[in-house]
Q: What sequence folds into this?
């Protein structure tokens, strides 16, 4: 099976220093893309990932910078530095996020019912997970439209994470990101340009910095499962796929990539099942 070649493509991966961000950045670089990775903090993790890409693919293929997606000036700087360094941008991966661990650490020992949540931590999670993707997408989309090519990929979660108890505001922020994905995809479709917005979920609990490694008896997904779908989404093979939700753990790497993609399409969490009363009333 032929490998996907992303030579000539440039991607920005927010939250690219660890976990799923690191895995997606490594996969994009392995496919030939030039990659900018960002993080709001944890510069040592960012540099470790950048160093791994430099060692494997060359120093000219990676750019790393501290940039907080909640700060519009930082988002614009990430765009401008990427354009200056690589001469273009084709893919935005909105991966940076803060999870329920952040709420727990802000108020240790207190059950994470919404009425006991630390208010400052709550606001920062929402700002990172909802406003951050907007600011990054706002920064790069005019460039995408001007060149008639662009891919926005929002990293989301399972429906269960959006609904389970003691999981706000993380779950609700990711539900908002699902809504943004749908709305942005329709806005982009109206431009008649080859610019799309889709979401990608690992499909289950995944070993990242957002959760504690002691997760009971549950087997956590390897973040590397995000690589194959991310590479396909970044490529021209994903032309025409817009407003879809892809589930990484359902991606069958033994199939041709577009067949694997079709098999990994999941129902948008906000979309009523076909034939339901809600669907017929839409």
A:
């Amino acid at each position: 099976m032929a490998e996907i070649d992303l030579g000539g493509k440039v991607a920005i991966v927010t939250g690219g220093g660890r976990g799923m961000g690191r895995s997606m950045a490594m996969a994009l670089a392995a496919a030939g893309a030039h990659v900018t990775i960002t993080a709001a903090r944890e510069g040592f993790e960012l540099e470790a990932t950048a160093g791994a890409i430099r060692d494997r693919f060359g120093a000219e293929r990676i750019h790393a910078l501290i940039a907080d997606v909640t700060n519009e000036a930082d988002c614009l700087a990430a765009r401008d530095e990427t354009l200056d360094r690589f001469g273009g941008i084709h893919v935005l991966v909105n991966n940076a996020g803060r999870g329920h661990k952040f709420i727990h650490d802000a108020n240790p020992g207190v059950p994470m019912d919404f009425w006991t949540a630390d208010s400052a931590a709550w606001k920062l999670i929402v700002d990172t997970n909802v406003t951050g993707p907007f600011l990054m997408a706002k920064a790069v989309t005019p460039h995408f439209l001007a060149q008639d090519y662009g891919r926005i990929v929002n990293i989301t979660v399972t429906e269960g994470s959006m609904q389970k108890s003691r999981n706000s505001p993380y779950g609700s922020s990711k539900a908002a990101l699902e809504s943004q994905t749908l709305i942005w995809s329709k806005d982009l479709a109206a431009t008649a340009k080859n610019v799309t917005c889709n979401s990608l979920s690992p499909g289950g609990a995944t070993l990242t910095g957002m959760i504690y490694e002691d997760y009971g008896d549950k087997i956590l997904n390897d973040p590397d499962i995000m690589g194959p779908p991310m590479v396909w989404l970044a490529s021209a093979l994903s032309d025409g796929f817009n407003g879809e939700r892809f589930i990484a753990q359902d991606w069958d790497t033994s199939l041709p990539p577009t067949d694997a993609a079709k098999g990994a399409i999941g129902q948008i969490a906000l979309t009523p099942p076909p034939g339901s009363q809600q669907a017929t009333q839409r």
